[in-house]
Specification:
5 helices; mainly alpha
Length: about 180
C-alpha cells in the first residue's frame, strides 16, 4: 500500500462520515416535519448542534485535506471534476459555518428562551437550507466518481441542470408550504 491509497481511503472515509451523518439527520428532520412534530424537529436540531463540532466540521476539513493530499501524491491536473469538487467543498463548508451552524444555535437559543414558535420557524429554515446543501454535496460526489473533464460539456451541463432542478424543487416546496 502506498501513501496515495492511504490518503484516498481517509478521504472517502471522512466523506462517508460527514455526508452520511448529516444525511441521516436531514432525513430525520424531514420525517419530523412531515409528521408535524415540532418537538421532533427541534430534537434533530439539538443533535446537529452536538454532532457538528465532532463530525461535520472536522469531517469537512479532513475531506479537503486528504483530497488535496491525493492531488499532490497522484500528480493530478486541474481537471473540471477537481476544480468543481474543491469549489463545492468550499461552498458547503461556508454554508455550514456561516449559515447552518449559526442558524441551528439560534434555533436552540430561541427554544431555551421559551420562544418555541420562532425556534421552529428557524428549524424549518435550517432543514430547507440543509436539503439544498445536500444537493450540492451529492453533486460533488458525482463529480468525484465520474471525473468529467473540461471538454465534457454535456456532463457538466447535466450536473448543473440537476443541481438547479434540485434547488428549484426545494424552493417550490417552500413556496407551497408558505401558502398552505
Amino acid at each position: 500500500m502506498d501513501w496515495y491509497a492511504i490518503a484516498k481511503f481517509l478521504h472517502v472515509a471522512c466523506a462517508v462520515a460527514w455526508l452520511g451523518g448529516g444525511l441521516g439527520l436531514v432525513i430525520l428532520g424531514v420525517l419530523a416535519e412531515r409528521a408535524r412534530d415540532g418537538a421532533g424537529v427541534m430534537a434533530v436540531i439539538a443533535h446537529v448542534v452536538r454532532i457538528a463540532p465532532l463530525v461535520f466540521v472536522p469531517g469537512s476539513v479532513l475531506v479537503l485535506l486528504f483530497g488535496l493530499a491525493m492531488v499532490w501524491l497522484g500528480g493530478w491536473n486541474w481537471e473540471a471534476w477537481l476544480v468543481l469538487g474543491l469549489a463545492g467543498i468550499a461552498a458547503t463548508g461556508l454554508i455550514g459555518a456561516l449559515v447552518l451552524g449559526p442558524l441551528s444555535e439560534r434555533a436552540m437559543r430561541l427554544q431555551a428562551e421559551g420562544r418555541d414558535a420562532e425556534a421552529l420557524v428557524a428549524g424549518h429554515k435550517l432543514l430547507r437550507i440543509a436539503k439544498a446543501d445536500y444537493v450540492l454535496q451529492f453533486a460533488i460526489v458525482f463529480a468525484m466518481v465520474v471525473k468529467p473533464g473540461w471538454s465534457e460539456l454535456g456532463v457538466l451541463a447535466g450536473m448543473a441542470g440537476v443541481v438547479v432542478f434540485g434547488l428549484g424543487l426545494i424552493l417550490i416546496r417552500r413556496g407551497q408550504a408558505a401558502t398552505a
